[in-house]
């Protein structure tokens, strides 16, 4: 008797394996379809939500377009970095630097300008996540180029100026500088994204230090190590005021610096005992097994 009561409470198992308490119960899908068929399109609430849907679709489409542009920027920036690393293996230094400068300028004038056009009239912070990885990669390539060219760190304020564009009727711009239809658009340049980009730069400088040893350019190795040490001192000043991402980058930066310092120490102490053609191999071995658990008392 109890089994019958349980069966009547649960109902019969349907084709999907679940139980229906009432055979006459209407499915949610059918009910929703009926509501949609009888929907009043002139209802103000319905019109309002239709407008929300249109805005969201436009936002998602714009976000995806920026993501696609961002991928192209990332790929080209990595290729420029690889090109700049050939300076230690090629004698045509000026040619490599000129090519890198041209390609970097093309990124600013074409791809980043497309992002600025997409951000026109929009809140740029809503779309920052769409292109921030490519922006950091571009900063890494740009600052690496300027270090190799002038041994200086590129100023982020100049980057903001270079990504500000004047657009309008190009024919009238040529004839009338005071054309009324000119407008200024800009790609958002956030200081923290620039900081994350130059933190990645230290990894490339560490590779350059090893490559300099392979060519026997020990002086450049010392110079690069001192440059990264100065950057590390600057980053230590932001500890406690920056976010988690900067802390992670600082951890990697310290790894690169300790590898370079260990290599420079090895070359300084035992450089005269090692043949020049073996310096790079010995430097790679010396840079392995770095322990950075002991720090200067700063909490990351």
Give the SSE map.
Layout: H1 2-10, E1 12-13, E2 19-20, H2 28-37, H3 44-85, H4 93-119, H5 128-150, H6 156-162, E3 164-167, H7 170-175, E4 183-186, H8 191-214, H9 218-236, H10 244-270, H11 279-286
Antiparallel strand pairs: 1-2, 3-4
Describe the protein.
This protein has two domains: 45-188, Translin, domain 1 (Methane Monooxygenase Hydroxylase, Chain G, domain 1); 190-300, Methane Monooxygenase Hydroxylase, Chain G, domain 1 (Up-down Bundle). The chain contains eleven helices and four strands, in the order αββαααααβαβαααα. The chain has helices spanning 2-10, 28-37, 44-85, 93-119, 128-150, 156-162, 170-175, 191-214, 218-236, 244-270, 279-286; strands spanning 12-13, 19-20, 164-167, 183-186. It has a two-stranded antiparallel ribbon. A two-stranded antiparallel sheet has the order 3-4. Strand 1 and strand 2 form a beta hairpin. The longest helix has 42 residues, at 44-85.
């Amino acid at each position: 008797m109890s089994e019958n009561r349980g069966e009547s409470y649960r109902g019969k198992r349907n084709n999907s394996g679940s139980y229906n308490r009432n055979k006459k119960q209407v499915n949610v899908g059918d009910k929703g379809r009926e509501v949609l068929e009888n929907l009043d399109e002139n209802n103000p609430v319905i019109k309002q939500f239709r407008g929300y849907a249109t805005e969201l679709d436009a936002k998602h489409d714009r976000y995806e377009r920026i993501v696609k542009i961002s991928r192209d920027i990332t790929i080209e920036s990595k290729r420029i970095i690889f090109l700049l690393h050939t300076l230690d293996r090629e004698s045509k230094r000026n040619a490599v630097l000129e090519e890198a400068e041209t390609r970097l300028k093309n990124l600013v004038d074409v791809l980043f300008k497309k992002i600025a056009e997409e951000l026109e009239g929009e809140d740029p912070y809503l779309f920052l996540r769409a292109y921030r990885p490519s922006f950091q990669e571009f900063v890494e390539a740009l600052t690496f180029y300027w270090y190799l060219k002038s041994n200086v760190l590129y100023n982020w304020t100049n980057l903001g100026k270079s990504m500000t564009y004047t657009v309008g009727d190009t024919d009238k711009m040529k004839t009338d500088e005071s054309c009324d239809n000119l407008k200024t658009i800009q790609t958002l340049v956030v200081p923290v994204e620039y900081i994350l980009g130059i933190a990645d730069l230290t990894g490339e400088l560490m590779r350059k230090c090893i490559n300099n040893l392979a060519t026997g350019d020990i002086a450049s190795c010392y110079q690069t190590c001192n440059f990264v040490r100065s950057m590390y001192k600057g980053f230590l000043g932001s500890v406690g005021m920056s976010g988690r991402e900067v802390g992670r980058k600082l951890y990697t930066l310290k790894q690169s610096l300790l590898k370079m310092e260990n290599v420079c120490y090895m070359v300084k102490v035992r450089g005269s005992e090692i043949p020049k053609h073996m310096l790079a191999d010995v430097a790679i071995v010396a840079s392995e097994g770095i322990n950075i658990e002991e720090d200067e008392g700063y909490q990351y």
